C-alpha cells in the first residue's frame, strides 16, 4: 500500500482505494478509514514513519531500517503479535476471516457489507453467511441437547430415589 496512492489523506480522514488490478477478486475496492483510526494513522505518518527513515519509500509500512516491509515480514509481525495477545498465533488473513464470519453471524446485510470491504463477490459472502448461520444453529442445537440431558438426568435421579425409598437429591 503506497502513501498518497492507495491511501490518501482527505478532509474527513483517509481514503483507501485499490484498482481492479490490485485486488484478488479483480474488483475495485474503495472505502474510508474508520474515524477512530484517523488520529492513530496521523501519528504514524507524522511521527513514527519518518523516524524509521521512510524517506526512502512511499510504501506505507517500513522496517526499523527504513526499508519497506515485505509481505513475509508483515506476516511474521502479525503472527508474533497475535501469539502475544491471543496466545495462539494467527496470520493477516485471519482478520479477514473474522470479519467475514462475524458479519455472516450478525446478518445477511452485514455479510454483504463484509463482501464490499473485503473485495469479495456477494456470492462468496452469502455462502460464508450461510456457513456461519449453520455453525450458530449447530451450537444452539448442542446446547438444547445438553439441557435435555441435564433435565433427563435429574428426572432419572428423582425416579430412582423415590423407587428406592430415598429422598430425592435433585432439588
State Rg. 25 Å
- State the secondary-structure class: mainly alpha
Biggest β-sheet: strands ordered side by side in the sheet: 1-2-3
Counting H and I runs of at least 4 residues, what is the number of helices?
Answer: 5
Kindly describe this structure.
The model has no long low-confidence stretch (mean pLDDT 80). The chain folds into two domains: 1-69, no CATH class; 80-171, no CATH class. Helix 3 (92-106) packs across helix 5 (122-163). A three-stranded antiparallel sheet has the order 1-2-3. It starts with 6 loop residues before the first strand and ends in an 8-residue tail after the last helix. The chain has helices spanning 38-51, 71-86, 92-106, 108-118, 122-163, and strands spanning 7-10, 13-18, 29-32. By secondary structure, it is mainly α. The protein is built from five helices and three strands.
Write the layout of secondary structure elements.
Blueprint: E1 7-10, E2 13-18, E3 29-32, H1 38-51, H2 71-86, H3 92-106, H4 108-118, H5 122-163
Antiparallel strand pairs: 1-2, 2-3
Helix pairs in contact: 3-4, 3-5, 4-5
Amino acid at each position: 500500500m503506497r502513501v498518497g496512492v492507495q491511501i490518501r489523506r482527505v478532509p474527513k480522514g483517509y481514503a483507501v482505494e485499490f484498482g481492479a488490478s490490485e485486488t484478488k477478486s479483480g474488483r475495485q475496492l474503495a472505502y474510508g478509514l474508520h474515524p477512530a483510526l484517523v488520529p492513530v494513522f496521523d501519528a504514524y505518518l507524522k511521527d513514527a514513519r519518518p523516524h524509521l527513515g521512510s524517506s526512502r519509500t512511499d510504501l506505507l509500512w517500513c522496517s526499523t531500517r527504513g526499508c519497506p516491509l515485505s509481505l513475509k515480514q508483515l506476516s511474521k509481525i502479525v503472527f508474533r503479535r497475535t501469539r502475544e495477545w491471543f496466545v495462539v498465533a494467527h496470520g493477516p488473513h485471519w482478520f479477514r476471516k473474522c470479519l467475514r464470519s462475524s458479519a455472516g453471524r450478525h446478518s445477511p446485510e452485514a455479510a454483504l457489507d463484509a463482501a464490499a470491504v473485503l473485495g469479495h463477490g456477494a456470492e462468496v459472502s452469502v455462502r460464508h453467511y450461510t456457513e456461519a448461520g449453520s455453525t450458530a444453529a449447530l451450537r444452539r442445537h448442542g446446547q438444547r441437547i445438553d439441557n435435555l440431558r441435564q433435565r433427563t438426568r435429574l428426572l432419572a435421579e428423582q425416579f430412582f430415589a423415590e423407587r428406592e425409598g430415598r429422598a430425592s437429591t435433585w432439588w
